[in-house]
Amino acid sequence: MGTLAGKNLLLGITGGIAAYKCGELIRRLKDEGADVRVVMTPAAQAFVQPMTFQALSGNPVHTQLLDPHAEAGMGHIELARWADKVLVAPVTASFMARLAAGDASDLLSTLCLATSAPISLAPAMNQQMWRAAATQRNLRQLEQSGYHILGPASGDQACGDNGPGRMLEPAELLALLGGEPSGELAGKQVLITAGPTLEAIDPVRYISNFSSGKMGFALAATCARAGASVTLVSGPVSLATPRGVNRIDVQSCQQMHDAVIGQKDIDIFIATAAVADYRPAARSAEKIKKSTDSLTIELVRNPDILADMSARSPRPGLVVGFAAESSDLAAQARAKLETKKLDLVVANLVNQPGGVFGSDENQVLLLDRVSQTELPRIEKRVLAEKLVQEIAKRL
Ligand code: PMT
After folding, report:
1. pLDDT above 70 as % of the chain
2. CATH 3.40.50.10300 segments of the chain
3. Dihedral pair phi/psi, residue 281, rounded to 5°
């Protein structure tokens, strides 16, 4: 029996082809000792008959918001209170839009608003629908509202496309559900750097890079959901602070260095920030005038935040660095592992197809002293979950 033993689990099913996988999901949830009640939207019933899930869950399936017969048994508010956890799988683009808007026009969306239980969503849809601006906007809204997004996975789709949008397999959903809310990082202090740094040349110009902060913010959100107490030191980015994360905004490498080194009792330090290795030797107080044909700006070395944290005493229990390379990925990353004395390096090629800086996806190589693992190109949110699992294993 796992952490779901004795829990009341409300499984919401919306109208996608992946609904057929819910039979196995219910069976596995029951094997874990959960009491499962199923709620189906009208579209879900076009894919699978409620009778199937009634037989597998051993409970009546709920389908209607305003059904006097059902309300006389377990009414919708009672059902919302009954649930210890809610999992909606699969979640369509349409259901995401309704939830993001707070629309309570059917039983399942009403329950999601009425319950105080944690809600996990397992999206499943065509890859183009998943990538659509509206879906991504709704996704960000749902994450900020505290919904726990599981997946989707990337791969072959029922419609013949290939890309992100496959519902996670029942076993993966179960593993992720079982891990929360107690969390793999419960009680841990995590410090993360994210985004670019900005090194001023004069009052109007600066040296920086294309980092958006997406990778670091995804890691911060995932660590917080895994139970850690998270401090995120971020360069200038236009991202909302993940729920439950303590954010410190900085601009330059020196400011990021000071903010990081000042933190005490850190169990895990993760450096995702793209930090400028050099800064102008002097910041001009006046705007530099274009009076000459060429201009030379002298640059001086910045402190290495990651190396300094790794050398600090007491050292964080685990120090994780990133390596952004344009060639010889494994060799360069291994050199960083050794020179900066890291426990784990997440190495990415900046010139991979689709890019890394600013992209929602990334393909990385994980290296530690004894192993090397190549991951496929996946969404940064999903990668963050995998990285947290890797980190938890090494604690
Ligand atoms: O922000 P996104 O748009 O989501 O993009 C993600 C990312 C590309 C920024 C991220 O995946 C990434 O690769 N981050 C590290 C970028 C980098 O600066 O790599 P590096 O190989 O130059 O540095 C190696 C490590 O040392 C990094 O962990 C870096 O944070 C750290 N470092 C570097 C220089 C310095 N002065 N201080 C540091 O702490």
Report:
1. 97
2. 189-394
3. -60, -35
**CATH (residue range 8-179):** 3.40.50.1950
Band (249; pLDDT cuts 50, 70, 90): very high
> Residue 374: pLDDT above 60?
yes
Regarding the beta carbon of 305 and ligand 1, being less than 6 Å apart is answered yes
Ligand 1 pocket member 21 (CB < 6 A): no
The CATH superfamily assigned to 189-394 is CoaB-like (3.40.50.10300)
Contacts of residue 309, defined as CB under 8 A and 6 or more positions apart, other chains included, come to 260, 261, 266, 269, 271, 315, 316, 319
Is residue 86 within 8 A of residue 99, CB to CB? The reply is no
The answer to whether the beta carbons of residues 299 and 250 sit under 8 Å apart is: no
Distance 194 CA to ligand 1 centre (A): 8
Question: Which active-site residues does the annotation give?
Answer: 159
Which residue from 211, 322, 375 has its CB within 8 A of the most atoms of ligand 1, so it is best to mutate?
322
Alpha-carbon 206 to chain mean position: 30
- Whether ligand 1 lies within 6 angstroms of the CB of 275 is answered as yes
What spacing in Å lies between the alpha carbon of 272 and ligand 1's midpoint?
5
Residue 57: φ, ψ to 5°: -85, -25
CA distance 50 to 39: 9
